[in-house]
Design brief:
This protein is an alpha/beta fold. It contains 20 helices and 13 strands. Helix content is about 50%, strand content about 10%. It has a seven-stranded parallel sheet, sandwiched between helices. Strands 6-13 form a two-stranded parallel sheet. The N and C termini lie far apart (about 85 Å).
Length: about 500
């Protein structure tokens, strides 16, 4: 059976539909599985917009341009469901629960992905939210596949990560009870100790959520799908699409506008990036496996786990990413560049601190002072504080290399009929041209995140030439000053 045909007349429930992975998944489902019956998406009112308005605004973005061309009526298959993953019962009304009774496939991708979230909020969203959805799914008698989207970093203390569940860091029921009983401040006091010194609340609560799933594996056709660091698309619906600054995209943008000059991390670490469209295809194929293979849903089997990771398929180091980015951004600069794109990595915390003070803080003071003189609102010091906080939260990931076994992920490609390889396969992208990939990523960041033209204007290119001259001039002044100090020191010894 073809993959598109396997989804015919299915009713799908998706949480996290407004997130990065959720958007890519919905676009792919609607465009490539046109015979599906309906997709219910859990949403909550936000910023004065109703759920219907939020869904409409999402559908008007450039991500769905291709969908509107190829399947102009597909958007009508989306049905918003009012709710909130942090609420008991997901906050879904009785009337909406009645509408969901015929759901056959669930994609649970809603999660708080902020690494600095308070422990209580992360537990309620990532762990209890999973349990609440599982309890609802027990009543959906037609359910054939429940895909829980986790992360390959759910067990960060394990450096060789297999496609299996690891021993729990805490009891998930007790943890939920603690979050329901104590306030945010109290829980944060015990965060590190209770979380077994995990690097952040995200990985801790996502690990617990996997154990919620594991406990219900004999009652539901449920499994765990773990993407690594999700980055911009490699092919569809357009190369380079992204909707956030997470991962290497934010790193390249910060370096590209000239505000990030130093990172305290290992440039030789092999990072695991997976394009968003590869994740979407993997999610569809994993559900397809459960639809067409009854043995996949058999009870009394270990929980099926998929590590959606590609570092052992297409390898690249963080240092290579930065060098590719610096080279291409100087050829195709951003419109609001503050200085020559650059930056480097170092494992020496002292050297990084010196660079941070001289290249980050000093630059922020100068720029903000100039802005105040022109009666403009200063912003760079505030932005540098946010960058510092973000990199502090990511420090362990910037200095550690994980290896993710992905036999189950690779095997999903073998399920794809030959005539659908181009549409649903992913191993054809095994040898990624990372220079071309990150060129598309930078153009995508310009277009989708910074709302600029993907090709730089003449004025931006002219400013880049000026920054070249100024950068060399400043370096000459600094080096001359340092040489003078060394000369005076040597003379004083004589």
């Amino acid at each position: 059976m073809s993959i598109a045909a396997a989804f015919k007349d299915h009713e799908i429930f998706v949480t996290g539909a407004s997130g990065f992975v959720g958007k890519a998944l919905i676009e792919k489902l609607l465009r490539s599985c046109p015979s599906l019956k309906r997709i219910y998406v859990l949403m909550r009112p936000k910023k004065g917009h109703s759920i219907e308005e939020r869904l409409q605004l999402q559908g008007e973005t450039k991500l769905y341009d291709r969908l509107r061309r190829e399947q102009p009526d597909a958007w009508s298959k989306l049905v918003p469901i009012a709710g909130d993953v942090e609420q008991l019962g997901l906050g879904i009304s009785a009337a909406d629960l009645e509408r969901l009774r015929n759901v056959t496939i669930v994609y649970h991708s809603a999660a708080s992905v902020r690494f600095d979230d308070p422990l209580r909020s992360a537990i309620l969203m990532n762990t209890r939210g999973t349990h609440e959805l599982v309890k609802l799914a027990l009543a959906w008698k037609k359910l054939r596949a429940f895909v829980h989207v986790s992360t390959t970093y759910s067990n960060p203390s394990v450096l060789e990560v297999e496609e299996r569940i690891y021993p729990p860091l805490a009891d998930w029921r007790t943890t939920i009870k603690l979050a329901e009983t104590y306030d945010e401040e109290t829980l944060d006091i015990f965060n590190l100790k209770y979380g077994n010194f995990q690097p952040n609340s995200y990985t801790f609560t996502k690990s617990l959520a996997e154990h919620v799933v594991n406990e219900y594996k004999d009652q539901l056709p449920i499994f765990v799908f773990r993407p690594s660091i999700v980055v911009s698309t490699i092919e569809e619906p357009v190369p380079g699409w992204a909707d956030n600054f997470n991962g290497p995209t934010g790193l390249l943008v910060a370096c590209g506008v000239g505000i990030l000059r130093s990172q305290n991390c290992d440039p030789n670490i092999v990072s695991d990036f997976v394009p968003a469209d590869v994740v979407a295809r993997g999610l569809i194929l994993a559900a397809y496996k459960f639809l067409v293979e009854p043995e996949a849903r058999a009870k009394d089997k270990p929980l099926y786990v998929v590590n959606c990771a590609t570092a052992n398929i297409s390898t690249i180091t963080m240092g290579e990413v930065i060098e590719i980015g610096k080279t291409y951004i100087r050829e195709n600069p951003f419109e609001k560049t503050l200085w020559l794109p650059g930056g480097s990595m170092t494992l020496c915390p002292v050297l990084h601190f010196i660079r941070f003070c001289t290249m980050h803080l000093l630059m922020a003071v100068v720029v903000d002072t100039l802005l105040r003189l022109y009666n403009e609102k200063p912003f760079l010091m505030k932005l540098q504080r946010r960058i510092f906080a973000a990199f502090s939260a990511l420090q362990v990931f910037a200095a550690t290399e994980w290896h993710f076994q992905n036999q189950n992920f690779r095997a999903l490609h073998n399920l794809v009929p030959e005539k659908e390889i181009d549409c649903f396969g992913f191993m054809q992208h095994a040898n990624i041209d990372y220079v071309e990939f990150f060129q598309h990523a930078i153009r995508g960041a310009k277009e989708f995140l910074l709302h600029e033209s993907p090709i730089s204007s003449k004025s931006a290119r002219f400013r880049m030439k000026i920054f070249y001259v100024l950068d060399y001039l400043c370096r000459a002044i600094v080096y001359s000053f340092l040489l003078r100090l060394v000369y005076r020191f040597v003379v004083s010894l004589w």
